[in-house]
Design brief:
The strands form three sheets. Strands 1-2-3-5-4 form a five-stranded mixed β-barrel. The chain has a five-stranded parallel beta sheet with strand order 7-6-8-9-10, with helices on both faces. Residues about 430-455 have low confidence and may be disordered. The chain has 15 helices and 14 strands. With about 450 residues, the chain is of the alpha/beta class. The chain has three domains: about 20-115, OB fold (Dihydrolipoamide Acetyltransferase, E2P) (Beta Barrel); about 125-280, Rossmann fold (3-Layer(aba) Sandwich); about 385-455, no CATH class.
């Protein structure tokens, strides 16, 4: 009994446990956490990262033993130098806060960087494979750098040695117009501004007051991998790929290779090297031009000398033109002289013929007399063979009743009557009474008309 009383007495004497509402507990936890941890850096590997439609990023950081939720508000996310990707080890700077609705806590990230070169190289290799698979690095897409650009566009920081080296080298080699688009080349937002500068140069048109460049140089000096990281960002890579102006990349030192070097049309080891790739050396061009001019003149001289020698060789096989003309002229003169002589001879002959005709007219008279004599003889011969002449010589012309000449006794027997013509008349015999007819002028003409029949026999 005594023990029981002591127990009850002890219970009444023990301190009482404080009582809180849920909201009070949540507020106290929030106050304690945020006071204890303030602004801190947390190293871990990103997983489960996703971007909300609002632009905020929600992700988790983990290590071998624990996981902590994290959030990156939209304004901070737009300034991150890289895209949060799963598997990437980072160092996130921010504050620990609680979320009363789920009785959880999370890290509100205000800044984030990649933890070490190893993680950056891993990310770099993954992006390289991604862009290569899309064809962004294909050589078929690369453009030819113009030989003599009139205007060169440069995307780099306005201050520093890079722009001075480019300008100095261009002026030394072949002075060209240079347009500089000043941009930050490292830090938050640098990638977006570099991409915007490339797009802005491409947006210029020939009608603008500022001439569109013939070639672009994207450059910055050396630095750590973190410093050069904007030139590995997707926004820059795609801007270079889409550029219609050929681009020369010159980022970092010769041993530094960024993703922009794979997508650009030409990679230069240094900014100075980019200027050398952009323009040739004017003095070298002048010397080369002089050499080519000399070679051209020598070739021209040699060409015409060879043709002269060849022409002289050919000319030795051709007769002398003057000699040919002299011979032709001599032959022509000879033909003219002979023609003149022949013409004079012809005229003289004709003249002599005329003179002979005029001086001896009796030659003509003799020709006429001889012609008349021949004509008379022919007339006498014709008369000697006429019908009348033959009849006068004692012949008679016997014809039958059909007025056909009878040549023999057989024909005479077949005729029923006869007509016998003498030189002085015609006698009819047979059925009719023979009667003599005196020859008239008409009968003489008929007889003469039939004289050709007399030659039938």
């Amino acid at each position: 009994m005594e023990d029981l009383l002591n127990l009850m007495e002890n219970q009444h004497s023990a301190p009482q446990i404080p009582e809180f509402t849920v909201s009070e507990i949540s507020f106290e936890v929030k106050r304690l956490v945020e006071t204890a941890f303030g602004k801190i850096k947390v190293k871990g590997e990103i997983f489960g990262g996703k971007r909300a439609d609002s632009g905020h990023w929600y992700l988790s950081l983990k290590d071998e033993n624990a996981v902590i939720s994290a959030v990156v508000w939209k304004g901070v996310a737009s300034r991150l130098p890289f895209k949060p990707e799963d598997g990437l080890e980072v160092i996130a700077t921010g504050k620990i806060t609680t979320f009363a609705g789920k009785s959880s806590y999370q890290l509100v990230i205000e800044q984030m960087e990649i933890a070490g070169a190893g993680a950056l190289l891993k990310l770099l290799e993954e992006r390289k494979k991604q862009f290569a698979a899309e064809g962004l690095f294909d050589s078929a897409h690369k453009q030819k750098i113009p030989f003599l650009p009139q205007t060169i566009g440069v995307v780099t920081s306005a201050s520093g040695a890079v722009i001075r080296d480019i300008i100095h080298r261009v002026r030394d080699r072949f002075p060209s117009h240079i347009l500089v688009w000043p941009t930050p080349v490292q830090g938050d937002g640098a990638a977006e501004k570099i991409a915007a500068a490339i797009k802005s140069f491409n947006a210029l048109s020939p009608m603008d007051e500022i001439k569109r460049p013939d070639v672009l140089i994207v450059a910055r000096g050396g630095g750590s991998l973190e410093d050069l990281w904007p030139f590995n960002e997707e926004v820059v890579i795609r801007a270079v790929y889409a550029s219609q102006i050929p681009i020369i990349s010159a980022v970092g030192h010769e041993t530094d290779t960024m993703l922009i070097d794979y997508v650009s049309d030409l990679r230069a080891p240094t900014p100075t090297g980019a200027a050398e790739f952009a323009v040739p050396v004017k003095n070298d061009l002048c010397a080369q031009l002089n050499t080519l001019t000399g070679r051209l003149l020598n070739a021209e001289t040699r060409y015409f000398e060879e043709r002269r020698i060849k022409l002289e060789g050919l000319s030795r096989g051709i007769p002398n033109l003057e000699q040919l003309l002299q011979e032709a002229t001599q032959k022509f003169d000879d033909r003219i002289e002979r023609l003149n002589i022949a013409f004079k001879t012809l005229l003289q002959n004709k003249h002599n013929q005329i003179e002979r005709t005029g001086l001896k007219p009796y030659y003509v008279k003799n020709i006429i007399e001889k012609g008349s004599e021949i004509l008379n003889q022919l007339s006498l011969r014709l008369q000697s063979v006429s019908v009348d002449s033959v009849l006068k010589r004692g012949f008679a012309w016997v014809k039958d009743d059909k007025n056909k000449t009878i040549y023999n006794i057989q024909q005479a027997k077949q005729a029923s009557s006869f007509e016998i013509t003498f030189h002085d008349g015609t006698l009819q015999t047979g059925k009719q009474t023979a009667s003599a007819k005196k020859t008239s002028k008409h009968s003489e003409r008929s007889t003469n008309a039939q004289q050709t029949d007399l030659f039938d026999f």
